[in-house]
Amino acid sequence: MNALSSSSISRALLSACLLVVTGACTVGPDYPPPRSSLPTRFAESTESRARPLPDDGAAWWTSFHDPVLNRLIDAALQSAPTIAQANARVREARAMVGISGTALLPNASADAAFKRNLGSQNLPVGVPPGGLGRGVHSNLFQAGFDASWEIDVFGGIRRGIESSDAGYEAAIEDRRDAILTLAAEIARTYMDLRGMQEQLDVARRNLVIQQDALAITTVQLKAGLAPVLDPLRANAEVEGTQADIPVLQADIRGAIYRIGALVGRTPEDLLTQLEQPRPLPALDPDPPLGLPSDLLLRRPDVSAAERRIQQENAKIGVATADYYPHFSLTGVTGIESLDASKFLTGASLYYQVGPSMNWLIFDAGRTRFRIQAEQARTDRAQATYQQDVLNALRDVEAAMVTYAKAQIRYRHLKQEREQEARALSVARRLYASGNENFLTVLDAQRTLYLVEDQLARSDRDCATDLVALFKALGGGWQGTDRG
């Protein structure tokens, strides 16, 4: 019996090995990386800027050299709900990879049971099918192990693992995209905040100038040196500027509250830190842009779209494998006895082992339709990828133009402010000498205030436009995270 058992087991194992050896094929199409026709450099770029971006691992927002901004973004990456959601999706995708991988391994289970049986007395005389006589009690002791192993002859399981791997990598890229989007939104709102604080400072400085002018015209009116219209006009300018200040203060509070929501902290935690004005950070007028081909790796949305092509492509192989037979090696062994005293003896041993095959011969075309559906999903993923590449190129080109034009506007406004400041100084001297009326001074003050306010807005626009450029580039020169 032992020789027979060894021979039977050997033949079963040999059959399984033959199945493994012959199972070298993997059905379904292999993944062809997508090709995109990209220009050699951006249309709005110069040769000096079309240089590869440094990949030193530095976060792009640190290029602003603003410690407050750095702390805000670092805190957001630790506590923001959007990042927590992205991290959870990565963990889920990693678990799915593990689940897919276990399909290549054997499954084993153990069981044990005790049964107390009583034969029915209403059956005819004789031994019934259950093996018990009428009214006879018996015990059944059982314990054993079951094992099964599906042999991946045609690669359906391996295609499933390939799909899960690609889905995991796509989830990592989605997390990078969430980090990029969150950091860019915090940086943009932070630049808005500092820009509005600069506008508030402009309004307050102009209010002091206007109040001085009101005081001068009031004194001159009392001395009979100015008409009554001059202090009225001066007071109107004061009231107009005072009306602007609370609007700016409300906008500043709103920006702080938005930053708090993005960072994942209550507004009270940030008021003390952010209400203190700080100047806008110095901006790089000519940041490196890299090459269009860099976007394929640097933009996380493009990378995620590429990974999803492979994820869907592998599912074609999973569906195709159902056209072919499924082979398994199964085994059962244990001990079974009606007598507890003989339960652990060799005579109680039993086993079953051998290969099996299951082949779905007819399914009314369901497998064919599944393959067609997976092919359509793959085609859709490829089209999405191509559109994402075009969108990335468009985003960079548009952001470059916007940032370049914003800098030009800022330079012109800066020169205009210098001219308007001189004009106000001349108007005051002429008014003080009696050679010009006060309306000229008011016009010069009003124009200077408007130009300074526009200059502050332009400074803010330059900063937010540079943030948009970094985002369009996929985070400037931040290295790719595969963790």
From TrEMBL:
One of its GO terms (cellular component) is plasma membrane. Residues 30-50 are annotated as: Disordered. The keyword Lipoprotein applies. The keyword Nucleotidyltransferase does not apply. Residues 1-26 form the signal peptide. It is a lipid-anchor. GO terms for molecular function: efflux transmembrane transporter activity. InterPro entries: MdtP/NodT-like, OMP_efflux. Coiled coil: none annotated. It is found in: Cell membrane. Keywords: Lipoprotein, Membrane, Palmitate, Signal, Transmembrane, Transmembrane beta strand. It holds the Pfam family OEP. Belongs to the outer membrane factor (OMF) (TC 1.B.17) family. This is Efflux transporter outer membrane subunit. It comes from Nguyenibacter vanlangensis.
